[in-house]
């Protein structure tokens, strides 16, 4: 599975893999596999941590920065697919590459449907695992970016006044300015001011962008039926 260091570095320097950064977490109860993968990933200038059991991984926690999990499906102390499911249920969102020594198609399908990004049958080539890890770390980078963007969006929302939040929720629910004014018992011009303030504070480039952010944050007045007619759209 692990070639010589020169070949590994050649693979790592290819355009499609040379941008790999992050930590690879290996969970496999085979000490030989752990040592082999540790050597391979370090030869490709990746950080690596290895564990023999899922409980050891959970106790250690996730490393900082981009990371992915290379997980053996058939562990002596745990079911790899069940562990994969428990991570998702626990809100631990990490790209997972599954490994197995058995070409089990139903197991492969189940693992991929549960969110694994790849499923490799042992023995696999250095190129195959490095390519899978590269894809996993790219996904991890995107996931972390989404988390940061969501946190920034939430922080901006918390800077809104109570009235600005009310207007944002009603607009996101589909009401026109005059309908928002009637519901809140304020003037139309005041609604427009609050809406403009909300858009500025939320860094919304348009009304559609403000509505998108409201939906991502789960902000909507559930008592309001949404309107989708062209007349409503023109009057906003």
UniProtKB/TrEMBL annotation:
Keywords: DNA-binding, Phosphoprotein, Transcription, Transcription regulation. SMART domains: HTH_LUXR (SM00421), REC (SM00448). One of its GO terms (biological process) is phosphorelay signal transduction system. InterPro entries: CheY-like_superfamily (IPR011006), Sig_transdc_resp-reg_C-effctor (IPR016032), Sig_transdc_resp-reg_receiver (IPR001789), Tscrpt_reg_LuxR_C (IPR000792), WH-like_DNA-bd_sf (IPR036388). This is Response regulator transcription factor. Residues 23-137 form the Response regulatory domain. The modification 4-aspartylphosphate is found at residue 72. The keyword Phosphoprotein applies. Residues 153-218 form the HTH luxR-type domain. It comes from the Bacteria. SUPFAM superfamilies: C-terminal effector domain of the bipartite response regulators, CheY-like. GO terms for molecular function: DNA binding.
């Amino acid at each position: 599975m692990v070639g010589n260091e020169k070949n590994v570095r050649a693979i790592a320097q290819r355009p499609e893999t040379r941008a790999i950064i992050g930590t690879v977490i290996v969970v496999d109860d085979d000490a030989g596999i752990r040592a082999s993968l540790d050597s391979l990933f370090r030869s490709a200038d990746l950080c690596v941590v290895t564990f023999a059991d899922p409980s050891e991984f959970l106790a250690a926690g996730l490393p900082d920065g981009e990371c992915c999990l290379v997980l053996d499906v058939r562990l002596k102390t745990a079911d790899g697919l069940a562990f994969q499911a428990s991570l998702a249920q626990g809100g631990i969102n990490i790209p997972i590459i599954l490994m197995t020594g058995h070409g089990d198609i139903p197991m492969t399908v189940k693992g991929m449907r549960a969110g694994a990004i790849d499923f490799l049958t042992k023995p696999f080539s250095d190129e195959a695992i490095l390519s899978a890890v590269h894809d996993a770390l790219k996904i991890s980078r995107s996931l972390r970016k989404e988390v940061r963007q969501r946190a920034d969006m939430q922080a901006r929302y918390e800077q809104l006044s109570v009235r600005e939040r009310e207007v944002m929720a009603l607009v996101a629910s589909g009401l026109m300015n005059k309908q928002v004014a009637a519901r809140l018992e304020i003037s139309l011009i005041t609604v427009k001011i609050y809406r403009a303030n909300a858009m500025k504070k939320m860094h919304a480039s348009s009304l559609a962008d403000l509505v998108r952010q409201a939906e991502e944050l789960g902000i909507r007045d559930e008592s309001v039926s949404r309107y989708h007619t062209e007349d409503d759209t023109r009057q906003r």
